[in-house]
Structure formats: C-alpha cells, structure tokens
C-alpha cells in the first residue's frame, strides 16, 4: 500500500502536526485502501503561511504569464503521462467506471493546458486603457492575481474538481491551499507529486488532506486567505460564505442542483432516452448538474417511461475496473444510505417506482444499487424538490410549453437544465426562459473547459471554466494618471 500519510506544504512532504490519519475506502468492496494524513488547524496555518509567503515574496505572481504557462503545461503532461494509473486510483477511491475516470483525467490535463493558454494571453491583455470623460487624466484597468486562494472540493470528480480550481488560480498568478474531500483524497496528493516534478515553486500549491470540520473549516476561516473557492453542498457552502463574511473574503461557490430536462413530444424517443440516461446515470448520478427531474410531454410520456425502464434494466453494474461496467458503487456508506432513504421516501410520497432501487443480486458487498426510475412524481414531493445525488431519475408529464417552463423553474436551484425538441425555435425560446447557468439543447451534461460553468439561485455564486474561471482569481486595479501640464489649482491657485 502506497503511503499517503503526508501533507504537501511549501514544496515539502510533512506529517500532520498531530500525526493523525483517516481511512479511505474502496466503495466496490468496502475495504480500506489507504490511510491518509488528517490535517488540523496547525497544519492549515502552516500551509496558508507558505502560500502567503509564496505570493508576497516568491516568484510566481511576478513571473510572466508565459513562464507560468510552461509549468502549467508540464503539470498537464504529468497527468497525461500517468493517465491510466491515476484513473485506476480514482476508480478505487471513488467507484466510478474506468472509462469515465479516464475521461475525467483527460479533461483535468486539458484544463491545465487550456489555462496555460489564458496565462499567456494575460501577458497581452492584462492591462487595458479606459476612456475617461476628463482628458487631463489617463487611465488603465489592470488585472492582477487576487492573492492566496483556499480551495475546498467534493468527491464526485476528485482530480477534475481540483484542476478546475488549481489551473485558473495558478494561471492568474495566485497561490493556493487545496483541501480535497476526505472520501477521495488520493489523486489530489498525486497531483502534488506532479506539480513538484513540473518545478512549481515551493508554496505555490499546498495540498492538505483532512476532514471538513478539522481542515476545511480552519481553511475557510483563516485570516491570511484572500479568496475562497468552494464546490460542494449548499449547507457547507452557506458555512463557507459565513466564514468569508467575517473578513470580507472574495468567495465563489459551486453548489448543488436539481436540474430539469424537458422533452417535447416531437423528440426521437431513443435519443431522449439516451440523453436522459447520460444525464442521470453517468458517474452514478453523483453529478451536481445531473438532470434528475425529467418533464415529458404527455403524448409520448407512457412510451418514453417504458423504453427508459427497459434500457435502465440493461445497465451493467459492478466494480468500475471491470470491462463493460456502466454503473459503479456509490462513493461511501453514508451516500449509499442517503440515496436508499430517498428512494424509500419517494415511494411513501406517492411516486411510482418503475424500476430499480434494490441491491443487484450478484453483488453482496459494496455500495451498489440498481438505478432507479420514478414516474408520476408529485411536484411537492421531496424527491422532486431535493437533490438526491445518486442514480435516481424522477419523471412527470406536462401538457404544454408554458407548464414545462413553469415546472422546470420551480426550484430553489438553478445550476443546469436541458431541453429536447425538433423545433429549433422552441428550443431557443425555452433555453432563454430557463433560470439556470447551463442549458443543454438536445443533449445533457457535455462539459467544455472553454465555456462558463456555474449556477443561478442556490446553486452558487460566480462561474468556473473558460475566461470566467480565470476572472475568479483576478482583481481589477485602475491606475489613473494626471497628465495635464496645468496645475490642479484647487487649494493652490
Ligand atoms: P460537502 O459540502 O459535504 O463537502 C465538500 C467539501 O467541503 C469536502 O472537502 C468537505 O470536507 C468540506 N467541508 C465539509 N464541512 C466543511 C466545513 N464546515 N468547512 C469547510 N469545509 C467543509 O459536499 P460533498 O458531499 O463532498 O459533495 C456533494 C455536493 O457537491 C453536492 O451537493 C453537489 O451538487 C455539489 N457539487 C457541485 C458541483 C458544481 O460544480 N456546482 C460540482 C460537484 C459537486
């Protein structure tokens, strides 16, 4: 068993001050795969001080964008060089099927390469002239790194979520302390090895594993942090925002969702079923943007539900390392029990369980469940309103466009939404009417590093990815010059 009992602080591997560890478990067989360093507030303080020093005195924010880009590209290559090995670690830590892990890690490498390009662009366009109404003055607006960033991430796409924060922060010239989820900490620690091998200067990226209340909370409360970037649940996001409010830290939040997928009657049923399945069963449904509420126009409702159930029963469930598996175990015992409880609640709330919800007969250990299709789900039920974060799709029928849009928007969340129809104008109208940060037309879930990502309403604040993701880590400074030959002449005339 490889050792993960050290934290990566100031370019060095250090045991936690209190020398504690926690266990991470393979959800496919419920066995411990590693003991992992458990950081507490003393370690967080050391990590933040290292990041502070690297920002205030180190070379990183003072380098050109092109110099930072070269290192980001080396990190991207470092991930690509170890893609298969890292993907297998991700499968054992998280449970996801290997092809999905390979996809994630390719995206993670791509994210570093993409932000390398934006770092280079900063050399050209970090400073822009501002036209003023008074020609005695001239002004420029200049983008500068926001400072020391604290990043806290969830377990569903472990290394990819790390990349979404580390790559833009480093491209901007920030330094960072990253805390991965205690359920899936392994690939983040591997990223530390990759960053060190890429010659990232000490203190620029510090990676501290630990529990939410022991490591995450002190990180979010640390006074030397300038910016907090969080992805995770709404309750934790709210706590992070409260911590940030105390000393007015810049904060961005990517939180949960209960995203709708509207299918109009002119859609091809097989195409709809394929995208509905991709929208909710990919990554075991443990996806913040999962289209977990499906609204189907009444004319095709019965046929679609039947076809969806038929295809859902065919999904191969098992250990993510096994060939052909499309649904792995849920990430942890806690998550497994939460999702099973939601299924029970759904039945009590009057939804019709069309298929799934039991442990597959051939799998007696591991956090496995058959994917669930619920039809006729009452609009006021908790399973229609609340995020389940598992392979559970909830379906309702609708009569017309107005009803579909009203029902889709009737949520405290607004992360993503999808619409399917052969009528382009209708898709355009509905896409504009949906109150969500991401809208997919005739598909669900494809995610591109170049495009903005984030939510309306309680799904978050700010945007990741693309140039928007870089802006998360930039401050804007105006430099205004008095350029007139004439004295100002207010006091001294
Ligand atoms: P979580 O909120 O329980 O944990 C997220 C992270 O916060 C973990 O690293 C955890 O250790 C840490 N944490 C927990 N308590 C903390 C505290 N008091 N202070 C500081 N940090 C603390 O969420 P999760 O269960 O890991 O992830 C699932 C949630 O994340 C879902 O709601 C999902 O929708 C959301 N999510 C959103 C996106 C997005 O882009 N919008 C992406 C992935 C996941």
What do you see in this structure?
With 493 residues, the chain is α/β, with parallel strands linked by helices. Helix 9 (269-281) links the parallel strand 12 (260-263) and strand 13 (293-297). The chain is 40% helix and 21% strand. The protein has helices at residues 41-56, 65-81, 83-94, 98-125, 158-172, 186-197, 212-221, 234-246, 269-281, 298-312, 333-348, 382-385, 401-409, 424-433, 466-471; strands at 7-9, 12-14, 21-26, 31-37, 127-130, 137-145, 148-152, 175-179, 205-207, 227-231, 250-254, 260-263, 293-297, 352-355, 372-375, 392-398, 413-414, 416-420, 438-441, 456-457, 460-461, 474-482. The strands form 6 sheets. Strands 14-15-16-13-12-18-19 form a 7-stranded mixed β-sheet, sandwiched between helices. Strands 9-8-7-10-11-21 form a 6-stranded mixed β-sheet, with helices on both faces. It has a 3-stranded antiparallel β-sheet with strand order 5-6-22. The chain is globular, with a radius of gyration of 24 Å. The mean pLDDT is 98. It has 15 helices and 22 strands. The chain binds nicotinamide-adenine-dinucleotide. Nicotinamide-adenine-dinucleotide is lined by residues 152-156, 179, 181-182, 212-213, 216-217, 220, 231-233, 236, 239-240, 254-257, 288, 387, 389, 415, 455, 460.
């Amino acid at each position: 068993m490889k050792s993960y009992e050290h934290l990566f602080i100031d370019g060095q591997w250090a045991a936690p001050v209190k020398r504690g560890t926690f266990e991470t478990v393979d959800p496919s067989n419920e066995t411990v795969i590693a003991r992992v360093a458990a950081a507490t507030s003393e370690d967080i303080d050391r990590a933040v001080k290292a990041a502070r020093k690297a920002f205030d005195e180190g070379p990183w924010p003072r380098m050109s964008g092109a110099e930072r880009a070269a290192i980001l590209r080396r990190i991207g290559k470092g991930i690509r060089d170890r893609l298969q090995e890292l993907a297998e670690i991700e499968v054992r830590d998280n449970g996801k099927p290997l092809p999905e892990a390979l996809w994630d890690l390719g995206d993670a490498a791509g994210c570093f390469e993409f932000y390398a390009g934006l770092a280079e662009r900063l050399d050209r366009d970090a400073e822009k002239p501002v036209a003023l109404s008074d020609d005695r003055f001239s002004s420029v607006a200049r983008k500068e790194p926001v400072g020391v960033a604290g990043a806290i991430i969830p377990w569903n796409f472990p290394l990819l979520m790390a990349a979404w924060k580390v790559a833009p922060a480093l491209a901007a010239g920030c330094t960072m302390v990253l805390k991965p989820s205690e359920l899936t900490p392994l690939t983040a620690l591997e990223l530390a090895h990759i960053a060190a091998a890429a010659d990232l200067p000490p203190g620029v990226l510090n990676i501290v594993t630990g529990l939410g209340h022991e490591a995450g909370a002190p990180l979010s409360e640390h006074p030397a942090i300038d910016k907090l970037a969080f992805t995770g649940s709404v309750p934790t996001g709210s706590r992070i925002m409260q911590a940030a409010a105390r000393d007015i830290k810049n904060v961005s939040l990517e939180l949960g969702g209960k995203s709708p997928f509207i299918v109009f009657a002119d859609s091809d049923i097989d195409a709809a079923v394929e995208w509905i399945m991709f929208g909710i069963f990919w990554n075991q449904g443990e996806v913040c943007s999962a289209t977990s509420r499906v609204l189907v126009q009444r004319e095709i409702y019965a046929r679609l539900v039947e076809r969806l159930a038929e295809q859902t029963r065919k999904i191969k469930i098992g250990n993510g390392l096994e060939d052909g598996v499309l649904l792995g175990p849920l990430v942890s015992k806690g998550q497994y029990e939460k999702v099973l409880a939601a299924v029970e609640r759904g039945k009590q709330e009057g939804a019709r369980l069309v298929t799934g919800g039991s442990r597959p007969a051939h799998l007696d250990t591991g956090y496995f469940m058959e994917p669930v299709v619920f039809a006729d789900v009452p609009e006021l039920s908790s399973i229609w309103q609340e995020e389940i974060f598992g392979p559970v799709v909830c379906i309702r029928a609708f009569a017309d466009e107005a009803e579909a849009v009203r029902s889709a928007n009737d949520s405290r969340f607004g992360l993503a939404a999808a619409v399917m129809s052969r009528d382009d104008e209708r898709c355009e109208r509905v896409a504009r009417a949906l109150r969500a940060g991401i809208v997919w037309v005739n598909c669900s879930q494809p995610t591109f590093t170049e495009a903005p990502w984030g939510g309306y309403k309680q799904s978050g604040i700010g945007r990741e990815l693309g140039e928007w993701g870089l802006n998360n880590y930039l401050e804007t400074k105006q430099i205004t010059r008095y350029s007139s030959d004439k004295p100002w002449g207010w006091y001294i005339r």
